[in-house]
Automatic annotation (TrEMBL):
Classification of source organism: Eukaryota, Viridiplantae, Streptophyta, Embryophyta, Tracheophyta
Name this polypeptide is given: Pentatricopeptide repeat-containing protein At2g13600-like
PROSITE patterns, per the entry: PPR
GO biological process terms held by the UniProt record: RNA modification
Organism: Rhodamnia argentea
Entry GO MF terms: RNA binding
Organism superkingdom: Eukaryota
PPR repeat feature ranges: 146-180, 348-382
Amino acid sequence: MLDSTNGLLRGQKEHLRRLEGEKDSLEATPEELAEAHHRPREENDKLECRLRSFVVRFGEHFQRRGSSTAFRGLTLISSSEFSLSRILNACAGLGDCSQGRKAHGYLIKLGYESDRFSENALVDMYAKAGDLEDAITAFEEISQPDIVSWNAIIAGCVLHEQNHQALELYIQMNRSGIFPNLFTLSSALKDCAGMELNYLARQLHTIVMKLDKKADSFVRAGLVDMYSKCRLMEDARMAFDLMAQKGLIALNALISGYSQNGEDVQAVSIFAETYKKEIGFNQTTLSVILKSATSIQAIDFSMQVHALSLKLGFDNDSQVATSLIDAYSKCGNIGEAARAFEIFAAGDLVALTSMIAAYAQRGQGEEAVKLYLEVQRRGLKPDPFVCSSLLTACANLSAYEQRKQAHVHVLKFGSCQTFKRVITHTD
């Protein structure tokens, strides 16, 4: 099994190397590009076919940067709407609005702007590349939007957290006589979750069941997430239990829902229950259950999770390491918190901040100041929370000079409001 997996990976790498070589062969010199307009039509057609094939295959391997190379070649020959639409898809994947606009201009120049495939690709590109206003403009220029058009603009609004606008578009789509598919409903579930619309949650669930009783696991995970964010945890658990194949995305949504709604015992229990069923877990799962275990002061459970993370190598993940530091420090075990921090080799700003806060809360000002100096040594810019923790630590120090230095650093990094809040608190 391992040999076959390694063989597959080697094959994929070799394919990518061949595509990279093909990309280089498509990099035309200025002289070659200048001659493009003077070539016979048949030669340009052959070149365009090569470019089409290249864009499609390179896109399949998520090497989107190759599409920009293809775009430069396409602009000097008679391009098709298919090739330009593929490049728009690539620009969407890159978040490259600049190249996307060039492709849009070329579509207009060649008279392909009314092609349905191109129209939908434009909406999708602008939405994913960060320009929702242009995405809406492109959508409004479509004379008769189809389900793909509606899906692109609704998903774009949800992506940019314009939830009310997404809901209005969903209603407009229904009124236009176009019935949603599972992709539409996936966006609608996220939209409903974002606005915490309890009354709409169950309606959407009903539509999902009517549309397809065997809806894919991604949509069913969306149901769990929606109910959790709408604070309907009984419904979330029901949606999870009804899943024929329970996946990690749905499990994380359920555990996070319990944790965020203050049902920490349930969060810990569902993890223990599903762990035996071998659904699996990842860094997000461990981070969330550590937070819940901390809330209920379940130090023994936190230590078991720590052992599990060490066994599987998750202890060197920023999310897990920070949660472990927080769990141990809030349970009063600053020694274990320090050990968890030392094991975490990366020591990023989040982990450093958590450890500084842990020392400050436990009255170990000297240790907190040492770590703050480490933040400076690494060239990391302290955020207001670091400065707040530093000032709290300095409040426990008798050295007046250290307090003054801390004040200077807080002012330097623009955290005057933090300084005022901490001074007021300590006074």
